[in-house]
Design goal:
By secondary structure, the protein is an alpha/beta fold. The protein has helices at 31-40, 67-75, 77-80, 88-97, 134-144, 158-163, 178-195, 212-222, 270-282, 301-317; strands spanning 8-12, 42-46, 102-108, 148-154, 204-208, 227-230, 235-237, 250-254, 286-291, 324-332, 335-340, 346-350, 356-357, 361-366, 369-370, 377-379, 394-399, 402-408, 418-419, 423-427, 431-432, 438-446, 451-459, 466-474, 487-488, 492-494, 498-504, 510-519, 523-526, 530-534. It contains ten helices and 30 strands. α4 (88-97) runs parallel beside α5 and α4 crosses α10. The longest helix is centred in the middle third of the chain and has 18 residues, at 178-195. The protein is globular and about 70 Å long.
């Protein structure tokens, strides 16, 4: 790791402009439920259904499908669905080892298939060769493991549309006849009453679909301490916002290139998964990783291996994921930062370029963190004193406004002496050293000869001599493994809060990403990353 001196590149906590998919319902969660959710940090969702027999998309495969395809899906697939290898206890045990605090099981997806013994429709798990209430086994196993019990319920129901001779599509409720709407709502209400009356305490309900308010109303009548996510909270899929409010929010990531089971998937590396988790926690959010089970109910080998590697990492570093809150900035140089809830203990999340090597010393300089006379420093999972070593393996020096941190990995977890995952340095009783500026990226505007990049400086912070600029790059699609580097514009002086912009010429057709930057004598602060297209 290089020692960072001079200008810093910082990602900050900005209590403004929440960009993304915000809550658009009237659902109100209790503060106690929101607090445990914010503390939890990591959840695991089981996204699974009849489509696993084919390895196709759960969300989209019935839309625009031929009548013959839809008929075979609804009538033939249940006859061959037999998840005989489903082991809820083993899944819950492995999830807990991996640092997961709550599980979410898709008890009803958009297709309308139900994984419990429901009296509301014959399109359910009882009418398959499996014949048993799979939800019951799941709830009992997760509860026994000491984890929070979550379910996902879709108020969209393609099977309902199919059986009412209606087009299977993303259907807005206002498009349906009054009698159909009454029947549709009756189905949702009946199913929610079953779910929240027959399975004991459910801690979390992830809702999707236009009738989420109705489902939430019924569920909360029966279990008032229930936390409702999805439609009821700001949430994103495969995208971490750069600037967020202090409220609870969630971002979902698939561990492979499909939400449901895929026979030949492209899998995310464990390094990538941990990077996403760390960034989400540093920004105050909760991460929900997603797996799809095999048609026989077993864990796919790739996802099981990833969870097992995450378990090794979590065994060492769980305290830096659970119960943390954002520091005054998210990232300084190569280090992500967060603090312990209701404390001034700061965690530095440090990722290697390739792997950490046992016995090698590394150093970094921080300018947002100040040690106090009562501060102590450690590397999570490693002894603070090692016999036969005169110099502590982790130490710091406070020189003016610069905190120098030196650390050596001596805790061997793999036989080869390498550790490819982030390590975490903990500094207790730390103090912030600065008030950073707050900047927002605004949507670019295409013009005849160029593209006008735009930003907004909301707060200057406590430094003078500000300048603004932008960074832009080609957009790299998910799982494309394309490494596109940021290109930076010139810097322009900025003396007051408000709007700013620069023209950008020479872009060829395609999709791009852009972020506004504000620089003062010691730091560079970026705004939200936005995507735009050049026709």
């Amino acid at each position: 790791m290089k020692i960072h001196t001079g200008l810093l590149f910082l990602f900050l906590v900005a209590p403004c402009w929440l960009l993304g998919q915000a809550s658009n319902t009237n659902i109100k969660n209790s503060q106690s439920a929101l607090e445990w959710f914010k503390d939890a940090g990591l959840g695991l969702r089981i996204h699974w259904g009849l489509e696993s027999q084919l390895g196709i998309s759960m969300e989209h495969s019935l839309i625009n499908a031929s009548p013959a395809f839809q008929k075979r899906f609804f009538e033939d697939l249940p006859q061959s669905f037999n998840p005989r290898d489903f082991d809820a206890k083993e899944i819950a045990h492995l999830a807990k080892l991996a640092g997961v605090q709550y599980l979410v099981f898709t008890v009803k997806d958009k297709a309308g298939f139900c994984f419990w013994d429901t009296k509301s429709t014959s399109f359910n798990i009882i009418n398959t060769p499996y014949t048993k209430d799979l939800l019951k086994a799941y709830v009992e196993a997760v509860r026994a493991a000491g984890l929070k019990v979550g379910i996902q319920f879709s108020t969209e129901d393609h099977h309902f549309l199919y059986t009412h001779d209606l087009p299977v599509k993303e259907t807005a409720i206002e498009e349906l006849d009054e009698e159909v709407v009454e029947s549709y709502d009756g189905l949702i209400e009946a199913q929610c009453r079953e779910l929240f009356s027959n399975y004991g305490k459910i801690d979390l309900l992830f809702l999707k679909g236009d009738r989420s308010d109705l489902a939430a109303k019924v569920a909360l009548e029966l279990q008032k301490d229930l936390l409702i996510t999805g439609a009821a909270l700001p949430n994103w899929e495969e995208h971490i916002p750069a600037q967020v409010k202090s409220q609870s929010w969630e971002v979902s990531f698939s561990m492979i290139d499909q939400w449901s089971f895929k026979a030949r998937p492209k899998a995310r590396s464990v390094q990538a998964l941990l990077s996403l988790l760390i960034e989400t926690r540093a920004k105050g959010g909760t991460a929900l990783f997603n797996i799809g089970l095999r048609p026989d109910g077993g864990l796919p080998k790739q996802e099981e291996a990833s969870l097992r590697e995450m378990a090794a990492w979590s065994f060492v570093n769980a305290e830096a994921i659970e119960g943390v809150r954002p520091w005054i900035i998210h990232q300084e140089g190569e280090a992500w930062l967060a603090r312990k809830k209701e404390a001034t203990d700061v965690y530095l999340y440090l990722s290697p370029e390739d792997s950490w090597t046992l016995g090698e010393e590394h150093s970094l300089i921080l300018k947002s963190v100040r040690a106090t006379k009562d501060s102590k420093i450690s590397l999570l999972g490693q002894a603070t004193e090692v016999p036969g070593r005169s110099v502590p393996p982790v130490r710091y020096q406070q020189e003016g406004e610069q905190l120098q941190v030196h650390f050596t990995l001596l805790h061997q977890l793999y036989d080869n002496g390498q550790w490819p995952y982030p390590i975490i340095v903990k500094l207790t009783r730390a103090e912030p050293t600065l008030t950073p500026p707050i900047v927002q990226t605004l949507p670019p505007k295409s013009q005849a000869q160029n593209t006008q990049l735009k930003g907004f400086l909301a707060k200057k912070g406590d430094q003078q001599d500000l300048e603004y600029g932008f960074e832009y790059r080609r957009y790299a699609k998910l799982f494309s493994h394309t490494n596109t580097k940021w290109k930076r514009t010139e810097w322009v002086q900025k003396t007051t809060n408000g709007h700013f912009g620069l023209p950008l010429e020479g872009l060829t057709a395609g999709e791009y990403e852009v972020r506004a930057l504000v620089k003062n004598p010691v730091l560079v602060v970026p705004g939200e990353i936005l995507r735009f297209s050049i026709p």
